[in-house]
């Protein structure tokens, strides 16, 4: 195999199954949903704002690992989200349990990263939306470790503008206390609040091909999330420290964060 072929295979999109609410998802939703609501007694506000049918993007702040469980539990319809492919690739009993759990909650495996991997992830989400499904995304890109709300990346707006799907902003409160970054098990002492805002039609900002439209749409989405979550605004992107001089140069050059 040539190096060119190796690079292409490395970025092949992960399989989408299960896209639809199949048996495992249905069982997981029937069991995990009521159990989570019983144990954590989440406060759920605005469920009526989530369209019952058709494509929709749930754009949320991101505070904890359990955010991707809190949203499907609180939503009135099946919700799909992308999860690291490593959660599906483990071996032995632990690997099997991880694979079954993430499959049952509607997770779709994806290779994380920039460049082609990021584009593949966007394409996977676009295909889900074109099938009329609900997709949960985090415009910040990664979890906030200090509780602040960071600037949104434009990938969510791009998908909304490209597919015509409405965006329902979501404000999560308390998930970082239930399961802080680094914790191995969730706390049973804290309660989570999940707030669904009114759907946003971002098409008024222009076409998906317009960088200005993507930026304006992203800012509108983040403003709605901020209103729901009440977090302090960071005013910057949530990015890891630059590892080398090239990364430092890229940070100061004007470019769009996807």
UniProtKB/TrEMBL annotation:
SMART domains: PlsC (SM00563). Pfam families: Acyltransferase (PF01553). CDD domains: LPLAT_AGPAT-like. Keywords: Acyltransferase, Transferase. Residues 56-175 form the Phospholipid/glycerol acyltransferase domain. Residues 1-11 have a biased composition (Acidic residues). InterPro entries: Plipid/glycerol_acylTrfase (IPR002123). GO terms for molecular function: acyltransferase activity. Residues 1-22 are annotated as: Disordered. This is 1-acyl-sn-glycerol-3-phosphate acyltransferase.
């Amino acid at each position: 195999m040539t190096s060119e072929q190796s690079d292409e295979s490395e970025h092949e999109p992960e399989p989408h199954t299960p896209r639809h609410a199949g048996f495992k998802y249905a069982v997981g939703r029937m069991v995990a949903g009521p159990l989570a609501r019983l144990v954590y007694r989440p406060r759920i506000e605005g469920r009526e704002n989530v369209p019952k049918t058709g494509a929709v993007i749930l754009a949320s702040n991101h505070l904890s690992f359990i955010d991707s469980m809190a949203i499907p539990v609180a939503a009135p319809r099946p919700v799909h989200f992308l999860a690291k492919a490593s959660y599906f690739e483990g071996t032995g009993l632990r690997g099997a349990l991880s694979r079954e759990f993430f499959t049952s909650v509607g997770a779709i495996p994806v290779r994380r990263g920039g460049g082609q991997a990021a584009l593949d992830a966007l394409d996977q989400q676009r295909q889900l939306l074109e099938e009329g499904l609900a997709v949960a995304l985090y415009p910040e890109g990664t979890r906030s470790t200090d509780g602040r709300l960071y600037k949104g990346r434009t990938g969510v707006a791009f998908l909304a503008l490209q597919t015509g799907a409405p965006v329902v902003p979501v404000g999560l409160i308390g998930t970082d206390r239930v399961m802080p970054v680094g914790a191995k098990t969730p706390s049973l002492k804290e309660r989570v609040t999940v707030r669904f805002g009114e759907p946003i039609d971002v098409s008024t900002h222009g076409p998906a091909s317009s960088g200005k439209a993507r930026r304006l749409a992203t800012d509108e989405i983040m403003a709605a999330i901020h209103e729901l979550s009440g977090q302090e605004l960071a005013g910057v992107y949530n990015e890891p420290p630059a590892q080398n001089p090239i990364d430092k140069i890229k940070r100061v050059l004007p470019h769009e964060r996807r």
